Give the backbone structure.
Amino acid sequence: DEAQMCLHNDNTAQDIVTNRQQALTQFHVNGTPALVLSGPDGNEVIQGVIGYGKLKQYFDNRLGIEQTEVQ
């Protein structure tokens, strides 16, 4: 099956290792879930499960949008 082929593909495995290493060294991501956000002030990392309300509040703050109550 296709998933098994990917698991046994050396190029795919190397890509995964390279991406993981970049996440660790460049963005200090040490687990999942994690979001890496790029903006004019540089990169920012949100790690862990934060839920819709907190994520919306974060983006609203970053975009300068007035806070509204999340239902």
